[in-house]
C-alpha cells in the first residue's frame, strides 16, 4: 500500500525535465524530416495508434491540418487494418504517422504493414524506445527516449510524444515558434495546481467526471478521460464541448465535475456550456490560458495555463494537472494507479488478419 502510485506520481511530476530533455534532442531528429518533407510534398497525413496514442493522433491531426493546411486525419490502428478502404485515398502522397509508447502494439504494427502493402512507402514512427518492432519497420522515427515509464497508464510518455508532434507541426508549417516555454509552464502548473487536483480527487461527493474539449483540445480531453478510467475506475466521459448539451448533460447532477479545456478560438461559447452546467447543479473546473475580466467562472475553480505560447502550441499543457486529478482519485479510492485493473502495458494479439 505504501508504494501505491509511486511510479505514476513521479512520472507525472517529472514532465518538466523530461520535456526539456526531449526538446534538447530534437534537432538531429528533425533535420532528416525537414529534408523528407521538402522532397516528398505530402498531400495527406494520417495519424494512428491505439489507446492513448490514438487520442494523441486526434490532437495531432487537428492541429496539423489547421497549421499546415495539409489534409490530416486520425484513425485507431485497428480501423486501418480492418477497414482500409475507408481510410486510404488512392494516388495521394500519404505520410502515415504511427504513434506507440512501446513500439510493439500489434494493431499499430499491422496498420503500418497494411499501408506498406498498398504501395505507400513513407511511415514516421513516434515512440519512447529507439529499437522496437515499429521503428524497425519504418524509415523515419522520432523518439522521446527519456519518457519511457514503469507505469501502465501513459502520462509523461503521452505528453512527451505530444511535444514531438508539436515540433513536427512547427517544422512543417514554418510557424517559427520556440517550444521551450512549455517547460517552465508545465513546471508552474504542476506546482500551482497540485493542491486543486488533490482537492477534487479526494472529494467524495464527486462521482462523475466529464472532460470537454473542442478542436485540438478534444484529443486531450479524451486522454484525460482515459486516465481517469484506467487509474481510478471512476465514471468518466469526454465530449466535444458544445456536443455536451445534446444529450449527455442529462447525466449532470451535484455529484458531477465538468472540466472544460477552454480554447482561445471558441472561449465564449465553451464558457457558456460550463455556466449552463453549473445551473444544472454540476461543479465545474475551467482551464483557460489567461483569465479574462468578464469571465464569470468561480476563480478557485479555474486553472490558468499562462503559457506565453500560441494556441496550437499550448495544447499539451491542459493535461498534466488532469493526470494528477486521476492519480488522486485512484489513491482516494484505495486503488494503485501504477497497476490499472485488467490492463497490461502493451496489447499483443495474434494477427488481426488471420
Ligand atoms: C497503447 C496502449 C496504452 C494503454 C494500455 C494498452 O500502447 O493502448 O495506451 O495504456 O496500457 O496499450 P502503445 O502502443 O503506446 O505501447
What would you say about this model in short?
The protein has 354 residues and is an alpha/beta fold.
| Name of the CATH architecture of the largest domain | 3-Layer(aba) Sandwich
| Main sheet summary | 5 strands, parallel
| Total number of helices | 13
Strand content: 5-15%
Which fold name corresponds to the CATH topology of the largest domain?
A: Rossmann fold
**CATH homologous superfamily of the largest domain?**
Glucose-6-phosphate isomerase like protein, domain 1
Order of helices and strands: HHHEHEHHEHEHEHHEHEEHEEH
CATH level 1 name of the largest domain: Alpha Beta
Overall geometry comes to globular
Average predicted local confidence, pLDDT: 95
Distance between the termini: 42 Å
Total individual domains: 2
Describe this structure in words.
The chain has 354 residues and is an alpha/beta fold. It folds into 2 domains: 6-173, Rossmann fold, CATH 3.40.50; 182-332, Rossmann fold. 45% of the residues lie in helices and 15% in strands. The chain has helices at 6-13, 15-24, 26-40, 52-68, 77-82, 84-87, 106-117, 133-137, 156-173, 182-202, 217-232, 267-279, 320-332, and strands at residues 44-49, 72-76, 94-100, 123-127, 140-143, 208-213, 235-239, 256-261, 283-288, 302-304. It has a 5-stranded parallel β-sheet, sandwiched between helices. A 5-stranded parallel β-sheet has the order 7-6-8-9-10, with helices on both faces. Helix 11 links the parallel strand 6 (208-213) and strand 7. The site of 1-O-phosphono-beta-D-fructopyranose (F1P) has 16 residues, from helix 4.
